[in-house]
Amino acid sequence: MALVDLSSPVDAKFWEPDPVVHQVLTPADGAKHMSAEMREHLGLEFDPNVLPDAEFLNNDTFTLTVHTGTHVDAPAHYGSKTTYGDGVPRTIDQMPLDWFCRPAFVLDLRDAGTQLVGADLLRRKLDDLNYVPRPLDIALLHTGAEQWLGTPEYFGKFTGLDGPAVELLLDLGIKVIGTDAFSLDAPFPYIIERYQATGDPGVLWPAHFLGRRREYCQIERLGNLEALPPSGFRLMCFPVKLTGAGAGWARAVADVP
Length: 257
Ligand SMILES: [Zn+2]
Known about the structure:
Layout: E1 2-5, E2 21-25, H1 27-42, E3 59-63, E4 71-73, E5 101-108, E6 116-117, H2 119-127, E7 138-142, E8 160-161, H3 163-170, E9 176-179, H4 188-198, H5 206-210, E10 217-220, E11 233-236, E12 247-249, E13 253-256
Parallel strand pairs: 5-7, 6-8, 7-9, 9-10
Antiparallel strand pairs: 1-13, 2-3, 4-10, 4-12, 5-11, 11-13
The structure holds zinc ion.
Zinc ion (ZN) binds near residues 67, 71, 73 and 220.
């Protein structure tokens, strides 16, 4: 077996709509920090210069949204109410782990020629797959968007799914849909321009808003999908247990026989 990393990095040098801040506490600064904390909170005196090399331990503080880097969206991200269950969407810490370690398959949308893929094209991709998806399989969309990672293009140039295309996957019993793009919906400018042209509220983020009617999770901002076979592998993608959050960062890894 081979473990294939499908995660995109969290990198403070990347262009992001919500920039990542990475503050580094060096081991030398860590020594002074620890000494000051001991004095303030415990009234203890400790000379940091007695430490080997006058160094204690490093620390890193990242400031970033839960939608930065590879992450899993929970139903609570899609709205405050659902039409299923008890009407309250689950947060990321409440989702079953069982959903995130499953056989997976890849639909290659790099030749889609559009920023919004519908059910017809998606059905043709499923027919070409040579694999029959089973309930709880994880569907991965390879859009090619990773080539723009770290640049403004990453947020405006990608391919998403419309509502019927997502429903097609959910009708197969799929609960987790992953993409290498910034969003499972089409890019923001595409959606807003389409709304302005049509006045139809149905064109507004249909993939995300569908999660108010049917419970499912999205994995966004995956990477390295070209390293995968179309099917016959397992995906592991456990979201970090952030209490009450609408999403959680994840290290996505494929186990390819
Ligand atoms: Zn997200």
